[in-house]
Amino acid sequence: MKLLEVRDLKAYYFTSAGEVKAVDGVSFDLEQGQVLGVVGESGSGKSTLGSVLSNTMRPPLKVVSGEVLFKGVNIFKMHPEELRKVRAAGISIIPQYAMNALNPTSKIRDIVRDLLISHEVPPDEFAYRVKLARERALKLGLPPWVFDRYAIELSGGMRQRVTILISTLLDPEVLIADEPTSALDVVVQRLVIQYLQDLVSEGSIKSMVFITHDIALVNEISTDIAVMYAGQIVEMGPAEDVMTNPRHPYTKVLISNIPEPGVRIAKKRVEGLRGEPPSLISPPSGCRFHPRCPMAKDICSRQAPPTVHLDGGRRAVTCWLYAGGGEAQ
Ligand SMILES: Nc1ncnc2c1ncn2[C@@H]1O[C@H](COP(=O)(O)OP(=O)(O)OP(=O)(O)O)[C@@H](O)[C@H]1O
């Protein structure tokens, strides 16, 4: 069953310097059981995509065109009441910098209670969710006393895990996880990854979009991978296939330079890739990757490449090398 259908989505930041085309023509489907890892360099539009998919964007970001259908209904056309219901139990987000997302003046137990009340959890389910919060806190390595504390009394790593707990407590059908393990130490990172994997495999969470710089991590957790470059998806397919047989020249460079787990792509210079990521106010003509592409042809600077479906439709690659359905030379 398709939970999300994203169709030619464009979302820009309207700034005094111009329109930052952070998401510029993104399309994909997310099915039940799928974990779509979204990977790319810093500034490629991953977080922007996450905030648009969860309809949590704020000015100066605006959706310019395209649709996001949640179980067939366009989330941008939902009535505020309908949207409120969809949040948390339908599409929930673990935001980037999750450690700062909690109200500092409420105890964690009250944040849990307020979540359940605001989502009109029926009385018979209320006690079950409170108990579930305690059980899941243990899985995340959080001691029982966190519920009696204010967010400001907790360490950054604890606050981040509490936010993950809150974002997942109502068992969303689509979880958008934006760098959920950034700033956590390696041991806690493992707990969080295991926690999210368990929720998906037991069916508590139906699907996930997992945003990260860490391509090794994306390989571990995802069923499918989407590679973003300059606001667009340049390659998408089953995780193992993309990792073992990358088709787009950008994916090839990313994968041949897999940093150690936990290292951000942006921090380790992507070797074999000349230049810097382009401006998204005036991106390069034709294929946005052409100025840095080791395999660029004449047409690449003149015309935007088509999206070509390979491997019986399982792989989508937006690149002139595959135009006509052929393999790259
Ligand atoms: N509030 C904002 N106003 C203007 N431009 C913005 C704003 N937030 C992000 N951008 C720009 O939008 C583009 C995409 O940023 P985004 O944060 O979505 O990328 P990202 O791939 O998630 O990178 P990172 O992982 O470093 O957050 C970048 O060019 C960024 O500078």
From TrEMBL:
SUPFAM superfamilies: P-loop containing nucleoside triphosphate hydrolases. InterPro entries: AAA+_ATPase, ABC_transporter-like_ATP-bd, ABC_transporter-like_CS, Oligopep_ABC_C, P-loop_NTPase. The keyword Transit peptide does not apply. SMART domains: AAA (SM00382). Signal peptide: none annotated. Keywords: ATP-binding, Nucleotide-binding, Transport. Residues 4-255 form the ABC transporter domain. GO terms for biological process: peptide transport. Gene3D superfamilies: P-loop containing nucleotide triphosphate hydrolases. GO terms for molecular function: ATP binding; ATP hydrolysis activity. Pfam families: ABC_tran, oligo_HPY. This is Sugar ABC transporter, ATP-binding protein.
